[in-house]
Amino acid sequence: xxxxxxxxDQGTTSSRAILFDHEGSIVATEQQEFTxxxxxxxxxxxxxxxxxxxxxxxxxxxxxxxxxxxxRIAGIGITNQRExxxxxxxxxxxxxxxxxxxxxxxxxxxxxxxxxxxxxxxLRENTGLLADAYFSGTKVKWxxxxxxxARAKAEAGELCFGTIDSWLIWKLSGGKQxxxxxxxxxxxxxxxxxxxxxxxxxxxxxxxxxxxxxxxKSSCEVYAETQAYLFGKPIPIAGIAGDQQAxxxxxxxxxxxxxxxxxxxxxxxxxxxxxxxxxxxxxxxTTVACxxxxxxxxxxxxxxxxxxxxxxxxxxxxxxxxxxxxxxYYAMKVPDTDGVYVVPAFAGLGAPYxxxxxxxxxxxxxxxxxxxxxxxxxxESLAYxxxxxxxxxxxxxxxxxxxxxxxxxxxxxxxxxxxxxxMLNVQVERPKIIETTALGAAYLAxxxxxxxxxxxxxxxxxxxxxxxxxxxxxxxxxRYAGWQKAVKRSMDWEKAE
Length: 497
Ligand SMILES: Nc1ncnc2c1ncn2[C@@H]1O[C@H](COP(=O)(O)OP(=O)(O)O)[C@@H](O)[C@H]1O
Ligand SMILES: O=P(O)(O)OC[C@H](O)CO
Prior knowledge:
35% helix, 23% strand, 497 residues
């Protein structure tokens, strides 16, 4: 009987479970959104138990829906929103605080202090990151400093910290395993990506006890088995990767110079730089990626915090669209934005600006501005932010990109993809499977369990549509100049108050 791989894709806004067959095709999907908690302006939290419950429900649901018995699952691959920090009690397994989400800005002051104290060059050099509230380290510090009794418990070895992969594996294994992989560890600000070990100097600076940290393993091996009662029988958990590294692997970007851009809640462009670590001079991060040989590779990354989330804001905040795909329908009603720019800096700005104090803004409004212009300008902001990142990436790489592989929910939007191609002046290639994050996690689990062989994977990538640039250079430059002006004006807003 056919065997399958089960990918668990724990994203920022939803938990997903996807069954893949040996062709790498999707057999069935289950998805559930969960609560976004905004306790204060700039703060974003998730309930770790809700994450676990939704993830388990969709995993069980997808097997039930397809009528697949547990013994036909060769392995589980886990991929997750990165940086989001959970701290839980080692004895009870209960979180001591909500998860602090990657978008959360509450630790901006801690980061300012790190900069003032001159730690940023060390951070850049050894973690590939910089002092920004985005990463896990300062979030863990905040929990230890602000939850009553937490620090004493942490020092007594009674607390565990983990990114969402660690939390899910802890739950799936019934508290038997406290592990993570290189790619997730590389987002914590606590992990030395040169030495591939936790960095004692940074643990000291951020006052995080080492006993809280998970064991760091490769992205492709058997880490644990699920508790038998969850799915009827144990299933090996055999792949872990942060969602952007998983997407890169799912896009088969396994050779130096290959890159992808994922349009999910945020937008994340990663370019493989091989087994050599390249440090950016233009505002990008260096991060650990997955290699076909199981050895970690390095990538340059441009992280844009708000992309599809801006479309969700049109839907849930402004309520001017009913569903995210409606954005295309409205944007098509106008030929352009009529000079309107939306800068969705709702959580500050990531690459290449790294401004924790930028805030969202709409520029260029006139009496003639209508709903369609604002919707179109919001969509176009995804493409402009991607152009900012690509410009930095090309400068760091020293060569122009020939084509960009895309994936993620918003890459389904044809108008956006065409505009993206126009703005970058490169071919934008959308594969048949845009769920490449889950596919990458499935590949990792499939490789670890012998379900797939490394040489099979690169051949599975299939093009759906290639969008070709059509815009005249002059027009592109004019529009992009407007964007750059708008971004500049949204910066340093919060601090100015
Ligand atoms: N057709 C579309 N046009 C624009 N945005 C879309 C479209 N479909 C989905 N999105 C956006 O894509 C995001 C979901 O993509 P997904 O890859 O599932 O993200 P995540 O993994 O971050 O939850 C949402 O923010 C949604 O608003
Ligand atoms: O949940 P996503 O897919 O938007 O990804 C979030 C990133 O991992 C944050 O670094």
